[in-house]
Amino acid sequence: MKTNQKSPSYLKRKAYFWVTLLLFLASVALHWYFGWKDYVNEQMAHSQPAEVPEYAVQMMRETMENWQSEFLQLIWQVVGLSFLWYCGSPQSKEGDDRREEKLDFIIKHLEPGKAEELLEQWKIKYPDK
Q1: How far apart are CA 38 and CA 84, in angstroms?
Q2: Distance from the CA of 105 to the CA of which of 8, 66, 76, 85 falls in 20 to 30 A?
Q3: How far apart are CA 25 and CA 53, in angstroms?
Q4: How far apart are CA 15 and CA 41, in angstroms?
Q5: Which ranges constitute the DSSP H helices of 46-114?
Q6: Cα angle value 14/18/21 (rounded, 5°)
Q7: Contact between 31 and 56 (Cβ < 8 Å)
Q8: What is the overall mean pLDDT for the chain?
């Protein structure tokens, strides 16, 4: 029985991405805003003019230091693990083999006459990666 449910909109399907992007842009904007305030105060304390090009270089250096030490580390942990999991590294399959063997055992005991036929059909329909 099929229902006429519409699939979620693009924004809903990618909600995590949009929220993350919004948080990222807000944090970068706030970082640069408060960095400007600090830079102006520091320049005033030394009786120097606040210059945008000098400020931009200083903020880019600080931003890259932050990204290098924390953002890139987190990216590697999340994306690297996801990539290795998706590609099927041995670590990602440890539980799958055990689970599949248990399911095969259950199927063979529930449907002893049709088990081999069903397992063969599923192997064709869902081939190993």
Answers
A1: 42
A2: 85
A3: 21
A4: 39
A5: 52-66, 72-75, 81-87, 94-110
A6: 140
A7: no
A8: 84
Helix (H, G, I), strand (E, B) or coil at 90: helix
Q: Taking a C-beta distance cutoff of 8 angstroms, is the pair 59, 35 a contact?
A: yes
* 87's tokens: 């590609």
Largest CA distance in the chain: 90
Inter-residue long-range contacts of 87-91, CB under 8 Å, 24+ positions, other chains counted: 88/129
pLDDT band for position 79 (cuts 50, 70, 90): confident
- Model pLDDT for residues 47-73, shown as the tens digit of each residue: 999 999 999 999 999 988 888 878 778
- Phi and psi at 40, nearest 5°, equal -60, -45
Q: What is the DSSP string of 5-60?
A: PPPPPHHHHTHHHHHHHHHHHHHHHHHHHHHHHHHHHHHHHTT----HHHHHHHHH
DSSP E strands: which ranges in the chain?
Answer: none
> Treating both helix axes as pointing N-terminal to C-terminal, what angle do 115-125 and 94-110 enclose, rounded to 10 degrees?
140
